[in-house]
TrEMBL record:
PANTHER family: XANTHINE DEHYDROGENASE SUBUNIT C-RELATED (PTHR42659). Gene3D superfamilies: 3.30.465.10, CO dehydrogenase flavoprotein, C-terminal domain, Uridine Diphospho-n-acetylenolpyruvylglucosamine Reductase, domain 2. The keyword Flavoprotein applies. Residues 1-170 form the FAD-binding PCMH-type domain. This is Xanthine dehydrogenase family protein subunit M. The keyword Flavoprotein applies. InterPro entries: CO_DH_flav_C, CO_DH_flav_C_dom_sf, Diverse_Substr_Oxidored, FAD-bd_PCMH, FAD-bd_PCMH-like_sf, FAD-bd_PCMH_sub1, FAD-bd_PCMH_sub2, Mopterin_DH_FAD-bd. It comes from Paracraurococcus lichenis.
Length: 264
């Protein structure tokens, strides 16, 4: 690791003040991404702003027709939440399959969404449910938040505070995991919401994205068969030693079928 200053603010306002004053400072929540990067000297922040002491960033609650989850809420808490299980069981199921036991007890939903790793799970739920990302400054619609590999609409010094998930009529999630790393090779989150059908694909491309052809098919026929004949274009998808772009394109259709089936 390189040397860095360490701060542990007790409020969002204090954290934002530190981050805004120092463009090279980086916030840390669960540390599942930043800590390995620091260890291998892939990142050299001037300061680390530890968010773990900010109580207002934690917790899960139902607010009318949506579930609000604080940025510092851990994966295991989402998986075990009675509110989430009752309102959006697909989200609780997703959280229960992230990484392994150690990761689920350390990692946070805000850290995962802010990092926007192509193989992360939560971005698919945020985009698939049409959630709203709440920061210290504004509210950002899911369709505007994810902008590319490890890139989001968050501005320097801006802090993700919470995520508001609309409660869907139905929702399901399925993924194919790399057996070694457990990262998603291709996944699909499908949801039938008040505003329409949404299908979000993660793992397969550089950034989570919607699949409009599948959305259109499901709008007239909610069934696994409706998406079974839709082929994902392999152009622009990820390809590596674990799977080609063509293989991932095939997985998109398979995972979408499974997601619809799991939604019922």
């Amino acid at each position: 690791m390189y040397d860095f200053a360490y701060h542990k603010p007790s409020s969002v306002a204090d954290a934002v003040k530190i981050l805004s004053a120092d463009p090279e400072a980086r916030p840390i929540s669960g540390g599942q991404t930043l800590l390995p990067a620091l260890k291998h000297r892939l990142n050299k922040p001037s300061a680390i702003v530890d968010l773990s002491g900010i109580a207002e960033l934690k917790g899960i609650k139902r607010d009318g027709d949506k579930i609000v989850i604080g940025a510092l809420t851990k994966h295991i808490e989402v998986a075990n939440s009675p509110e989430v299980k009752a309102a959006i069981p697909a989200l609780a199921q997703m959280a229960s399959t992230i990484g392994d036991t150690q990761v689920r007890n350390c990692g946070t939903i805000g850290g995962s969404v802010s990092n926007n790793d192509p193989a992360a799970d939560y971005p698919a739920a945020v985009l698939g449910l049409g959630a709203t990302v709440v920061t210290d400054k504004r509210r950002i619609a899911a369709d505007d938040f994810f902008q590319g590999m490890f890139t989001t609409a968050l501005e320097p010094g801006e802090l993700l505070v919470a995520i508001e998930f609309p409660i869907p009529e139905k929702a399901g999630y399925a993924k194919m995991r790399n057996p070694a790393s457990r990262y998603v090779m291709a996944g699909a989150f499908v949801a039938k919401t008040k505003s329409g059908l949404r299908v979000a694909i993660n793992g397969a491309g550089p950034c989570v994205f919607r699949q409009p052809a599948m959305e259109q098919a499901l709008s007239s026929n909610w069934s696994a068969d409706a998406v079974g004949g839709i082929k994902q274009d392999a152009d622009g998808l990820n390809g590596d030693i674990h799977g080609s772009a063509e293989y991932r394109a095939h997985l998109v259709t398979v995972m979408a079928k499974r997601a619809v089936a799991s939604a019922g």
